[in-house]
Amino acid sequence: EHPALTSYTPDGVVQALETIIKTVRPTYVLLPHTYQTRDFVPKLAARLDRACFVDATTYLARLAIRAGETREAYTLLREVVARDPAHPDAIPLLVDAAIATRHTEEIEEALRVARAIRPAGAEIGAAYAKWLTARGRAIEALALVEPLLVRAPDATLLLGVHADAAYAAGREAPARASFGRLLELDPTSVAAKVGLVRLELDAGQLDNARRILGTAPDAIRLKLLDVELAVLSGAGAAAVDGARTLAQTASDPTAWLLLARLLLQAEDDSGASRALQSASRLDRSDPEIPLGQT
Q1: Alpha-carbon dihedral of residues 205, 207, 210, 211, nearest 10 degrees?
Q2: Distance in angstroms (rounded) separating the CA atoms of residues 287 and 68
């Protein structure tokens, strides 16, 4: 009701809230998720010399994904996107959560709305392209992401999505170029090394694959590829031993699924069954485990 707040200005809101907060002295100050809040909160935090924690729900969803709680993350992110249909941080996370929980069909409309609101947004464009690739529409993904990549050729987010889409579309040269450029920009990128190893395995270049694998021995996905490489090299027993060690030391259902596949190939049905049970306990998204695929 104060005259200074009749029309919104960040300075007017900061002045009013600063007075209230200094008087009440709360431990925490919770504010709604609006564009105005995003506008004035950083200035308010600086004035009070206090930490500013924005997009708490999105942050919680990110933590949930890292912890394997993909269903919880998916629910949180749907709520965020319902409030802000073009949230640049929530949309990519929603795609990741939807892919992990096999809810990709449910978010198609949300992605279309986000793209309509921010047609030139790199984050949303990359997320949409990633979704298209996951849906088996890699050619459409390439058509979407390539113009964005022209405008920002060294954007690591776009390079990774473009490389994955090109690989899925069977286009080796652009996939190799994008994975290679991504690795130049980020030498620690597991995604780039995994992609390059896949390409080398497809080409039968086992020595090149081993060389790339040797640069990041602690990355879980690269370790899994190392086991697969042992299979391609004809070292079946070593592959089973490697997969078993990896599965027992890493809280990752993919390792147990790989072990199950190798055990099925070795006609160890009981061992494969135990490995599948371990994978199911770890995988909170309850995947459909392809028992017949060996």
Answers
A1: -110
A2: 13
Contact yes or no for 183/194 (Cβ under 8 A) = no
User: What is the SS3 assignment for 113?
Assistant: helix
Report which of 32, 94, 87 is spatially closest to residue 65, judged by C-alpha positions. 94
Q: For residue 181, what pLDDT is reported?
A: 96
Separation of CA 152 from chain center: 20
pTM value surpassing 0.85: no
Burial of 119 (0-12, 13-18, 19+ CB in 10 A): exposed
Using only C-alpha atoms, the chain has a radius of gyration, in whole angstroms, of 23
Residue numbers of the chain with a pLDDT score lower than 50: 284-294
Residue 155 CA, chain-centre distance (Å), reads: 16
Question: How far, in Å, CA of 146 to CA of 153, rounded?
Answer: 9
Phi, psi of 67 (to 5 degrees): -85, 0
- Interval 71-84: pLDDT, tens: 899 999 999 899 88
Residue 266 in contact with residue 285, Cβ under 8 Å? no
As a whole number of angstroms, the distance between CA 97 and CA 104 comes to 9
| Tens of pLDDT, residues 96-107 | 899 888 888 889
DSSP 170: T
How far is CA 119 from its chain centroid? 21
